[in-house]
Design brief:
The structure holds two protein chains of two kinds.
Chain A lengths: L6 H21 L6 H22 L2 H6 L1 H18 L1 E3 L2 E7 L2 E3 L1 H18 L7 H19 L4 H19 L2 H21 L2 H11 L8 H13 L12 H4 L11 H34 L3 H25 L17 H20 L3
Antiparallel strand pairs in A: 1-2, 2-3
Helix pairs in contact in A: 1-2, 1-12, 2-14, 4-5, 4-6, 5-6, 5-7, 5-13, 5-14, 6-7, 7-13, 10-12, 12-13, 12-14, 13-14
Chain B lengths: L1 H39 L1 H10 L2 E6 L6 E2 L5 E13 L7 H12 L3 H11 L7 E7 L1 H9 L7 E10 L7 H4 L1 E3 L6 H5 L9 E4 H5 L1 H4 L4 E7 L5 E8 L7 E3 L3 H11 L4 E6 L6 E7 L5 H4 L3 H9 L8 H4 L9 H10 L8 E4 L2 E4 L2 E4 L7 E4 H6 L3 H11 L1 H10 L24 H8 L9 H13 L2 E3 L4 E4 L2 E2 L5 E3 L4 H16 L16 E8 L6 E9 L6 E7 L8 H13 L1
Parallel strand pairs in B: 2-10
Antiparallel strand pairs in B: 1-8, 2-3, 3-4, 3-5, 6-7, 8-9, 10-18, 11-12, 11-23, 13-16, 14-15, 17-20, 18-19, 21-22, 22-23
Helix pairs in contact in B: 3-4, 10-21, 14-16, 14-17, 16-18
Classes of the chains: A mainly alpha, B alpha+beta.
Chain lengths: 354, 570
């Protein structure tokens, strides 16, 4: 039985994309005004890609998860070997003038792969299934971690955790996992690069490095706080227009929204994300087929985790780790893959078995 | 079974609801935080944003010292004063510039131009005048109340106490280039910081620059500090000890006088660079002070004072190439040490006549005499018998035509690659025609003759931060002990026999071995004078290559400079 699209979900995605363009117009005014047009192209490309994905049944997409996953891992290896240096980290792959960020592709591929694997395992999950699925997520995650991109690597683990939890992770495994994570902390600390450690320390106390990373947090907190109830008005935020905010078009775009649109505007964005999560979980609940549920759970964990961490980071509640705000932050690869995730959710809604 | 399945369904449902709850909880926390920042503390942040009370006061780390092998300071740091202005606190810059120009005797237009170029962010002080005399700094400090946004900052400036000495090796500082800046930025370099742009200052920049620190302060409307928000201690750069001897270096520089040229002195057994001179030189202090007119003069000077001729000057070698020709001939048994050829003052190849420098001819002479008196006809005949392929291979093996492994900028020189006519081959054998070498390559080559056949890699950094740097290795030059003995005996005769071309290098205090060269250039009548050699002849401690650019014959100034070098320690 076929049903209609989830119109509300489409609406939420379009609203977030439009907010992104309007906020970016202001954030890039003194930076590089052409960013808006590029982002607009990416929104259009993303929306078309999402529409196309939603027209094909999700189980067909899950069917090709294995080659897709293998391809994304291969891309990560290639970018590691030959990636162009940008922002000090090797994250982009340039193909015919277009820069592709393979870590974004890896998020989508890993979500499909986890849905396929966990969808075929009975609940509650055996230890073996848990370990295998964890390895499936960790393989690309470790490749991304060495790029080095700590933020995106944690997204993959968050997707795995969310999906495995929904797939029926046993409570004692959950407890064991928590212990394992705590035990791994000192090891992880050792593996991190100096600047990553600095960022984590700065999160605990922004005044540790007020000239480096701490500066960003202090300035973005001032920007958001100064917005008060209704904000300082579009194109009128001094923190934004006077170049106090570094990276404000990308990961810190939310601070521009906070400054110029105030508490009300910021809450609208939080509300839209909340609505997106509500619709995504509703799609998962309504579908009675296990693979579809797992896929919806994976996509929900992905978008939800990214949104919470990004906005938290801008407000000084989470460490600065370079995670974009879904459908809002500037970035072509992220915009297109997030729209494809929305398309997948629509597909689960349309082709789901009641 | 069906009951279990239903339970499982319920379970997945419950867990999905939990997922939603947790994400919603996260969003809820965000709203609470938003309310705290924007509604509860909003007024404070609005105030902070509007008046922008936060100011960064950078403190540069002192650069690491550069010391010579005896601990003399080649590069150090001195305290000076700098005038800076905070853009956002200067509502009427032109009035301030007028006032300042009276206090500092600098045109207001120039101040304004520097300010426009240097300003970055509204709250970051932009340097306007560097190297302010203390008296002016105090005078401005007294009236600072009337000059909003003006700051006097104490700064640490790079200084080179020995002036021009070893300037090419030390290099100079400058503002980072546009393409290097994005990379340097990740190491904490700010747009107005000076970074190494040439020489060791450039090569060792990572070690020397340390890590700059600074203060993040909140100021009141009169720019007085109200609260310290953060502080980062600057970390000074590492101090670096070089292998060069500043006294020897200065001695050589003086003896060049106004003559352009270059000189490299190596320890032949280790490859340590004891002196590396390039003339004309420049004063790196002008770069540290950012004296733009002086820098422009260096850049415009037709004598290219900024170029390190010792490593980047490629010259025709002239007769000093005969040493390598002799090695090739002896190693391939084309001649024996006692073989003789007759020099009638010229050699006819095809329809061209090639002259010896001695038009009357040297008569029947042996290899020893041919080196001692630098007979062209002898070596042209030998070179033709060796043939181009073997000659070219020997030159390449002796280190010509490719880089020596020097750490910094270095020219590879040139060797002919294609086919040559008979005449060109004969010329190549006496170091004329299609061959270019650098003084550094010549110093390495003559070191190999001095040390028994090891081609050393020249190096100059002995210690970094008190830790010794392991010297680079060497590679063998395929040459028999007998051939080397022959060459050394002939080179001793060049300097110590009254008939030798390098007799003006003769010293009573130390026995010197050497070879002169006088290379014809494209300017008729102008020749490059060369001297390569080592001393003491029987247990070499120093090996040297000296070139005087358009400086006449090698037996003149270059030989007398060599004498000075060899008598330096003796």
């Amino acid at each position: 039985m076929r049903s209609q699209d989830d119109r509300l979900l489409w609406g939420v995605a379009i609203a977030l994309s439009l907010i992104s363009l309007v906020a970016l117009r202001s954030a890039s005014a003194t930076l590089n005004p052409s960013l808006v047009w590029r982002q607009a192209v990416w929104v259009a490309v993303g929306a078309c890609a999402g529409w196309f994905v939603s027209r094909v049944a999700y189980f067909r997409w899950i069917h090709v998860a294995v080659p897709f996953y293998a391809l994304s891992v291969l891309l990560l290896v290639v970018v590691e070997a030959a990636g162009t240096m940008k922002l000090g980290a090797e994250r982009w792959l340039t193909i015919g003038g277009l820069s592709l960020q393979p870590s974004e592709v890896a998020k989508l591929a890993t979500a499909c792969m986890l849905a396929r694997y966990l969808g075929s395992r009975p609940s509650p999950l055996s230890l073996r299934s848990l370990v295998v699925s964890g390895a499936l997520a960790s393989w690309p995650a470790v490749l991304i971690l060495v790029q080095p991109d700590l933020g995106t690597a944690t997204i993959l683990w968050a997707v795995w955790f969310g999906t495995a939890w929904v797939a029926g992770m046993r409570r004692r495994h959950l407890a064991g996992l928590c212990l394992f994570a705590v035990a791994l902390l000192p090891v992880g600390w050792h593996v991190l690069k100096d600047y990553q450690r600095a960022r984590l320390l700065v999160f605990l106390n922004p005044h540790v490095d007020p000239l480096g990373t701490g500066y960003t947090i202090i300035q973005s907190t001032i920007a958001i706080g100064s917005g008060q109830w209704v904000g300082r008005g579009w194109m009128a935020g001094t923190q934004n227009q006077l170049n106090f905010l570094p990276e404000r078009h990308a990961d810190f775009l939310y601070s521009v929204i906070g400054e110029e649109w105030g508490f009300l505007g910021s809450c609208v964005v939080v509300g839209l994300i909340g609505c997106l999560i509500w619709r995504a979980v509703r799609i998962a609940v309504k579908n009675s087929e296990r693979e579809g549920r797992m896929l919806a759970a994976a996509l929900t964990s992905w978008i939800g985790y990214q949104a919470v961490i990004n906005m938290g980071m801008v407000m000084g509640l989470a460490p600065v780790v370079g995670i974009p705000l879904p459908l809002v932050s500037y970035g072509g690869s992220a915009m297109v893959t997030t729209w494809m995730a929305i398309g997948l959710l629509q597909s689960i809604h349309r082709f789901g078995i009641r | 079974m069906s009951c279990f399945y239903l339970c499982y369904l319920c379970d997945v449902m419950t867990r999905l609801i939990w997922l939603r709850r947790i994400l919603w909880l996260g969003l809820g926390l965000l709203i609470i935080r938003l309310a705290q920042l924007q509604l509860v503390e909003g007024a404070m942040y609005r105030d902070l944003a509007e008046h922008n009370r936060i100011r960064v006061v950078p403190q540069l780390a002192p650069r690491g010292l550069l010391l010579d092998r005896t601990g003399r300071r080649l590069a150090t740091n001195v305290l000076s004063f700098r005038l800076a202005m905070v853009p956002q606190e200067t509502p009427d810059p032109s009035a301030v510039f007028t006032h300042l120009s009276r206090l500092t005797n600098t045109p207001a237009a120039e101040l304004s131009r520097t300010f426009t170029r240097q300003r970055t962010l509204p709250f970051v002080p932009a340097p306007v005048l560097a190297n302010l005399p203390k008296i002016e700094a105090l005078r401005i400090e007294e009236v600072r109340g009337k000059l909003p946004g003006v700051l006097i900052e104490p700064v640490v400036t790079r200084a080179y106490p020995l002036g021009e000495t070893a300037s090419h090796l030390i290099g100079y500082l400058g503002q980072p280039s546009a393409d290097a800046f994005p990379i340097l930025k990740t190491y904490g370099v700010r747009p107005y910081d000076l970074v190494g742009r040439a020489g060791l200052e450039w090569h060792l920049d990572q070690l020397l620059h340390g890590r700059s620190g600074g203060e993040l302060i909140e100021v009141d409307h009169r720019a007085r500090q109200r609260r310290l928000l953060g502080f980062r201690q600057p970390v000074p750069g590492e101090s670096v000890t070089l292998t060069i001897d500043a006294r020897l270096q200065a001695l050589i520089e003086r003896s060049f006088g106004s003559q352009a040229g270059a000189c490299v002195v190596l320890n032949p057994s280790t490859g340590e660079v004891l002196a590396m001179v390039s003339r004309p030189g420049f004063d790196p202090n002008r770069f540290a002070e950012q004296d733009q007119s002086a820098i422009q003069r260096f850049l415009d000077d037709s004598g290219s004072p900024l170029m390190n001729r010792a490593t980047s000057g490629a010259y025709l070698p002239g007769s000093i190439a005969k040493l390598v020709t002799a090695i090739a001939a002896l190693e391939h048994h084309v001649i024996q040490p006692e073989s003789t050829f007759e020099c009638r003052g010229a050699l006819r190849i095809g329809d061209r006549e090639f002259h010896c420098w001695k038009r009357d001819g040297h008569g029947l002479i042996s290899l020893h005499q041919a080196i001692q008196q630098s007979c062209n006809v002898y070596f042209m005949q030998v070179g033709r018998r060796v043939g181009l392929p073997r000659l070219r291979a020997e030159f390449a093996q002796a280190g010509f035509g490719h880089r020596s492994g020097w750490l910094m900028d270095e020219q590879p020189g040139h060797l002919p690659s294609g086919r040559l006519t008979e005449g060109e081959v004969a010329l190549l054998a006496i170091g004329q025609g299609q061959i270019l070498v650098t003084p550094l390559q010549e110093a390495v080559m003559v070191s190999a003759i001095a040390n028994g056949g090891r081609l050393v890699t020249p190096w100059v950094v002995a210690e970094v931060g008190g830790h010794a740097i392991p010297p680079p290795g060497s590679r063998p030059l395929e040459v028999s002990r007998r051939s080397l003995e022959t060459l050394r005996a002939a080179m001793i005769a060049v300097v110590n026999d009254p008939q030798g071309t390098g007799f003006s290098a003769h010293s009573d205090r130390v026995r010197i071995a050497g070879k002169t060269g006088t290379a014809q250039t494209h300017l008729p009548g102008h020749t490059h004078g060369w001297f390569v050699g080592f001393c003491p002849a029987d247990a070499p401690q120093l090996a040297m290559a000296i070139v005087a650019e358009y400086g006449g014959s090698g037996g003149g100034l270059p030989a007398s400079i060599a004498k000075g070098i060899c008598e330096f320690d003796a």
